[in-house]
């Protein structure tokens, strides 16, 4: 539902999203009595919420992520992208996983419905000013998740072998994958090098990757090193190794 706007310059425009009509009515009633806020829209599902958010341009969106048969977490980034609003999660769920997922998606704070309305009001004000509203435990968990997501992935032994190839040798392995039906002379031509040079590169590659011939090289690289154009993979041959 889109509300009539009589917003004064200093009021914070708030959109409420919750599947429960009583909750929507209660929060709306309480915030309407506070001159610092204007309820610009209320919605009970994601489609309605997004349409109203785009048209009403709220400053703050108060979202219950557990919508009926919908995952409200998934619409957080879209709401932010379309409106530039700051999202607060106001939920009955005690699940830290849901809280953390919401923050990772872009929510600026999480408030449980067991907390007082004064807490919600204070959070809206602080978040509108650019602050976060998270307890210390949630902050620690989320920072740990971010650190783990950005930590380097451990390479397999095969990937480590591929890392030892020079840029020219890597180019040769990709050419071998893309042109498996061609002779070494033809492949050398595509690389603009002599066949002798190509054979020298292959000898070094066989040694580094611990393969014995062209067929084993093709199988190895086909499994652990995808080409720039996977659709161009040729069918494997049993000859010309």
Could you characterize the architecture of this molecule?
The chain has 2 domains: 12-149, Response regulator (Rossmann fold, 3-Layer(aba) Sandwich), CATH 3.40.50.2300; 157-232, Winged helix-like DNA-binding domain superfamily/Winged helix DNA-binding domain (Arc Repressor Mutant, subunit A), CATH 1.10.10. The chain is an alpha/beta fold. Strand 1 (12-17), helix 1 and strand 2 (37-43) form a beta-alpha-beta unit. It has helices at residues 21-32, 46-56, 76-83, 96-105, 117-128, 136-150, 157-163, 167-178, 184-191, 195-209, 214-224, and strands at residues 12-17, 37-43, 60-63, 66-67, 70-71, 86-91, 109-112. The radius of gyration is 29 Å and the shape is elongated. Mean pLDDT is 86; it is low at 230-241. The protein has 11 helices and 7 strands. The strands form 2 sheets. A 5-stranded parallel beta sheet has the order 2-1-3-6-7, sandwiched between helices. A two-stranded antiparallel ribbon has the order 4-5. 50% of the residues lie in helices and 13% in strands. It starts with 11 loop residues before the first strand and ends in a 17-residue tail after the last helix.
């Amino acid at each position: 539902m889109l509300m009539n706007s009589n917003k004064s310059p200093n009021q914070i425009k708030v959109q409420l999203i919750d599947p429960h009509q009583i909750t929507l009515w209660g929060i709306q009633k309480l915030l309407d009595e506070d001159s610092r806020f204007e309820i610009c829209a209320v919605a009970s599902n994601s489609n309605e919420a997004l349409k109203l958010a785009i048209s009403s341009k709220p400053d703050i969106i108060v979202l219950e992520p557990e919508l009926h048969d919908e995952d409200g977490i998934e619409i957080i980034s879209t709401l932010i992208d379309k409106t530039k609003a700051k999202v607060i999660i106001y939920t009955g769920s005690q699940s830290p996983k849901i809280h953390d997922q919401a923050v990772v998606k872009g929510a600026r704070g999480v408030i449980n419905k067991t907390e007082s309305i004064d807490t919600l009001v204070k959070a809206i004000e602080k978040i509108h000013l650019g602050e976060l509203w998270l307890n210390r435990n949630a902050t620690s968990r989320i920072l740990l998740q971010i650190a783990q997501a950005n930590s380097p992935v451990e390479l397999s032994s095969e990937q480590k072998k591929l890392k030892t190839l020079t840029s020219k040798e890597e180019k040769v392995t990709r050419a071998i994958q893309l042109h498996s039906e061609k002779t070494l002379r033809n492949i050398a031509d595509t690389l603009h090098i002599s066949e002798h040079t190509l054979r020298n590169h292959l000898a070094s590659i066989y040694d580094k990757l611990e393969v014995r011939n062209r067929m084993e090289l093709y199988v190895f690289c086909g499994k652990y090193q995808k080409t720039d154009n996977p659709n161009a993979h040729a069918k494997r041959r049993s000859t010309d190794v």
